[in-house]
TrEMBL record:
This is Alpha-1,4 glucan phosphorylase. Keywords: Carbohydrate metabolism, Glycogen metabolism, Glycosyltransferase, Phosphoprotein, Pyridoxal phosphate, Transferase. The lineage of its organism: Bacteria, Bacillati, Bacillota, Bacilli, Bacillales. CDD domains: GT35_Glycogen_Phosphorylase (cd04300). Belongs to the glycogen phosphorylase family. InterPro entries: Glycg_phsphrylas, Glyco_trans_35, Pyridoxal_P_attach_site. Its cofactor is pyridoxal 5'-phosphate. GO terms for biological process: glycogen catabolic process.
Length: 793
């Protein structure tokens, strides 16, 4: 289909006309996009079939269970991975169709909130690109993450609708549907050979799989992402049909708009069980139909649990092995424990999932029984290890105080537990999960996160990709470790100039987009200082915006104050129910209004908030950044992956020693990164002692005092909007150490500005050292570690 230009063009036109009954001349970009994408999907179908055939012949398979997959757009990435991008770009150009305009038509598949969901998407890309047998299992939410619309500086949430025109990449497989039971009760049948259990009077929900191809680089391997959609089942008698329909379809209607703070909602628990029950049964079905022996399951199947949301997969596999396949408890547990591995993503205690028994037990009666049994046996083992230590055992129990603790269930039922960056894993082992680490140290390991360089470099930044290719060859495109070949060019002034030109080009492209979207003119020769990520108190967008306000005050107070012109760029969605985060978004807008419209700072400080942050917007912003803001309160960010994307695109990190920033520093060395603020140890010991006295910083630092006063004195608004922020810093003792880190941040920012303005050679060298050191953060490296050390594939 794509081997001959004439044939392609003919077939493309013909299909367009036949699908839409429209002449080629009159066809729209949307119709062209759909037609091209369908051709690509058909093109890969034989490789897809072949990949599945290959897997049937006994390879160990990995299933990555995740409640989120933040995929973004697929057309461009698939073409790059198939090696077809440039060819089709020219062939389409001949027909007066710009390929990038077709790409713009595709809606982002935003089935995730942020880092956790994006990690899952990067992992799928790496698995396929490394020709590894790894598949995703998730939910096909009808509406992905909400669309953010800014109205007068306030965030409005609109329902997202990625399926509006049908989705070109999925294949619906109704014949592989599975019925998932909820409610009902458990029948206990005493038999000679033992007690049997049966889940009766359940209400069923039909899980219908929609398969998406995951195209590996080079096009040899096409793995599968299976997303389940909830529909009415024919197994449930129809009493109140409308109610049943509504409740059923609700399960795959919306993605929960928060990845760190689940409210105790039955629907969320239903989503979790729906995902795992459908996935585990489809995994078993496939395994058995290929002639697998159940008792050998763990030798042929590895199931990975991305955070605690899919943890019910553990009791669900137990249920199937016990109730449907009649294995003994010990046999079933032996298999289960060796099949599962679990990744922890956070140490924030408010994000640790716990389900009240009063919700859990009626919804999932048989699963609850099994969880209780797992708990009992687990506690018995603890009792043998720590006789008499009631306190310790109660702390570690899976069911206690009227709740099911999902992280404890994950630890008990998995053979591997990993953190996502060195520091995070250390904190898990030595603090948050120390009891479990003492009990079973061999289970714990670290797998530092990564990003797929195919999206975040090859796709997002073709200009830089070309420059790198002409400089060090194209080996890095396949193997990101080859980026280290760039290191010697840190002193090559001709190369440095070209690198600078690429960065400038990308800043011009972004400046154009900012003007179109925000109506603000930004200067591409100013420093592009960027913070884009979910809005959360611990990520400290507040520190950034207070620094901008302070900088503004400094310039106003002292007209001789020298600074390199700066453009501060923000992008962030706040969870709809997270009032404080939304107020910070408003604050960013108010500061932007003040600063952008004051002649005293015009051209010197510009603040831009780009609405609706998402993968495709990130692909435009990140290549244009000079400074990457990674300023979370130390110890709070498990890894961060945004930090890696920026580094790979030649931005310099302004960061705390938190998450993977620690390892970024290790790669760049201290001269190529800006580190400031409290260390994790310091934060944790303050936390232990109940914080620090933030009021002292207000009293002793006139700049802080002046800046904080402006939150409440009418400078920014006359309705008292920001009192809540003022109070969080002074009244509530500044839980995230914003004021404590403020002066250190301000000074480090000043230093960065000085180097950019006065020592451009040094800055360019820093850029090179970041790019050349970023190869280790390719998710290919991460996935190779998972494959070897956890999955054994
Ligand atoms: C990478 C990415 C994230 C994660 O960013 P962090 O800075 O690590 O929090 C969130 N959202 C999108 C759209 C991303 O691409």
């Amino acid at each position: 289909m794509f081997s001959d230009k004439k044939a392609f063009q003919e077939s493309f036109k013909k299909r367009l006309e036949q699908s839409y009954s429209i002449s080629f001349q009159d066809s729209t970009r949307a119709q062209q996009f759909v037609t091209l994408s369908n051709m690509v999907r058909e093109h890969i179908s034989s490789e897809w079939i072949e990949t599945n055939e290959r897997y049937r012949k006994g390879n160990k398979q990995v299933y990555y269970l995740s409640i989120e997959f933040l995929l973004g757009r697929l057309l461009g990435q698939n073409l790059i991975n198939l090696g077809l991008y440039e060819t089709l770009e020219t062939w389409l150009a001949d027909l007066n169709i710009p390929l990038d305009e077709l790409e713009e038509i595709e809606p982002d598949a935003a089935l995730g909130n942020g880092g956790l969901g994006r990690l899952a998407a990067c992992f799928l890309d790496s698995l396929a690109s490394l020709n590894l047998p790894g598949h995703g299992c998730g939910i096909r939410y009808k509406h992905g993450l909400f669309e953010q619309k800014m109205v007068d500086g306030f965030q409005m949430e609109l329902p997202e609708n990625w399926l509006r025109y049908g989705y070109v990449w999925e294949v619906r497989k109704s014949d592989l549907s599975v019925d998932v039971p909820f409610w009902g009760s458990v029948d206990v049948i005493e038999r000679k050979e033992g007690t049997k259990f049966r889940h009766v009077d359940a209400e069923y929900v039909r899980a219908v799989p929609h398969d998406m191809p995951v195209v590996g680089y080079g096009g040899e391997t096409i793995n599968t992402l299976r997303l389940w959609s909830a529909e009415m089942s024919t197994m449930t008698p129809m009493h109140d049909v409308l109610k049943y329909k509504r409740e059923t379809e609700a399960i795959s209607e919306f993605l929960y708009p928060d990845d760190s703070n689940d409210e105790g909602k039955i629907l969320r628990l239903k989503q979790q069980y729906f995902l795992v029950s459908a996935s585990i049964r489809s995994i078993l079905r496939r395994f058995l139909s290929n002639g697998g022996e159940l008792k050998e399951l763990h030798k042929h199947v590895a199931i990975h649990i991305n955070d605690t949301h899919p943890v019910l997969a553990i009791p669900e596999l137990m249920r199937l092995l016990l109730d449907e396949y009649q294995l003994s408890w010990d046999e079933a547990w032996h298999i289960t424990e060796r099949t599962f591995a679990y990744t922890n993503h956070t140490t924030l205690s408010e994000a640790l999932e716990r389900w009240p028994i009063r919700i859990f037990k009626p919804l999932l009666p048989r699963i609850f029984m099994i969880v209780e049994e797992i708990n009992e046996r687990f506690c018995k083992r603890l009792w043998e290890e720590y006789p008499g230590e009631w306190g310790r055992i109660e702390k570690m129990a899976i069911v206690a105080n009227g709740e099911v603790r999902m992280a404890h269930l994950a630890i008990a039922g998995s053979h591997s537990i990993n953190g996502v960056a060195w520091l995070h894993t250390e904190i898990l082992k030595n603090r948050e999960m120390n009891d479990f680490y003492q009990f079973q140290p061999e289970k714990f390991n670290n797998k530092t996160n990564g990003i797929t360089h195919r999206r975040w470099l090859l796709k997002a930044n073709p200009e830089l990709t070309s420059l790198l290719t002409e400089t060090i060859g194209d080996g890095f495109q396949k193997d990101a470790a080859e980026l280290s070949k760039l290191a010697p060019y840190a002193d090559d002034s001709a190369f440095l100039q070209k690198l600078w030109d690429v960065k400038t080009k990308r800043k011009e492209i972004l400046a154009k987009r900012i003007f179109e979207q925000n109506g603000v003119k930004v200067d591409p020769s100013s420093i592009f200082d960027v913070q884009v990520k979910r809005l959360h108190a611990y990520k400290r967008q507040l520190l950034n915006v207070l620094h901008i306000l302070a900088l503004y005050n400094k310039v106003k107070a002292d007209s001789s104050y020298q600074m390199a012109p700066r453009t501060f760029i923000f992008g962030a969605k706040a969870s709809p129910g997270y009032f404080y985060a939304k107020r910070i978004i408003k604050l960013i807008h108010s500061v932007a209004d003040l600063v952008n419209n004051d002649p005293a700072t015009k051209g010197l400080i510009t603040v831009v908030f780009m609405e609706n942050y998402r993968v495709s917007l990130a692909e435009d912003i990140i290549p244009a950044a000079d400074i990457s803001e990674q300023i979370s309160t130390a110890s709070k960010e498990a890894s961060g992956t945004g930090n890696m994307k920026f580094m790979m695109n030649g931005a310099i990190t302004m960061g705390t020693l938190d998450g993977a920033n620690v390892e970024i520093l290790e790669q760049t060395g201290p001269d190529n990164i800006f580190i400031f603020g409290l260390k994790a140890e310091e934060v944790m010991s303050y936390d232990k002692e109940g914080g620090y006295r933030s009021m002292d910083y207000y009293h002793h630092d006139p700049l802080i005092r002046r800046t904080l006063d402006q939150l409440v004195d009418g400078t920014l608004d006359d309705k008292g909007l920001f009192g809540v922020i003022y109070d969080s810093l002074l009244g509530e003792n500044d839980q995230y150490f914003v004021l404590k880190d403020f002066e250190s941040y301000r000074k480090t920012q000043e230093e960065a500005g000085r180097i950019y303005a006065e020592d451009q050679a040094r800055w360019r060298k820093m850029m090179v050292n970041n790019i050349s050191g970023s190869g280790i953060f390719s998710s290919d490296r991460t996935i190779k570690e998972y494959a070897k050390e956890i999955w054994n594939i």
